[in-house]
Design a protein that fits this description.
OB fold (Dihydrolipoamide Acetyltransferase, E2P); CarO-like; 2 helices; about 35% strand; alpha+beta; about 30% helix; five-stranded mixed beta barrel; 5 strands; globular
Length: about 120
């Protein structure tokens, strides 16, 4: 008899993080949509701010790291291979990225991309 409430509690506990993760993802993309900004604004933004940027690829810095440029400036973006490959992100490719500002103590601010859309090659 006592096992049923315990089992139910374990199931609820296991499912709760999944529900919160979906709400967090939705909130992240909602915040990023509101923060459709330029690169110069991104360079001044707070760490972990969700943003949307549009620009073109200037070059590949190293594996999964690219330089994105718009009319206001340029900055590094980190794009995991499961989002886009180096073949897709060639010099001149216009992209729209959704990501999180990542500030560092000893290197320039960059963006960890969570979604990328290729606008024009």
């Amino acid at each position: 008899m006592r096992k049923t409430p315990l089992l139910l509690s374990v199931i609820v506990f296991m499912l709760t993080p999944h529900v919160w993760a979906e709400q967090d993802d939705y909130g992240f993309f909602e915040e990023a949509a509101k923060n459709n900004i330029t690169i110069v604004q991104a360079l001044r933004a707070n760490d972990e701010t969700a943003v949307t940027l549009q620009g073109h690829i200037v070059g590949q810095i190293k594996h999964e790291h690219y330089e994105l440029k718009d009319t206001t400036g340029s900055m590094a973006i980190e794009v995991d291979d499961d989002l886009a490959t180096a073949d897709q992100l060639k010099v001149g490719t216009e992209v729209k990225v959704v990501g999180e500002i990542d500030t560092h103590r000893y290197k320039p601010t960059d963006i960890e991309v969570v979604k990328i859309e290729i606008m024009k090659e």
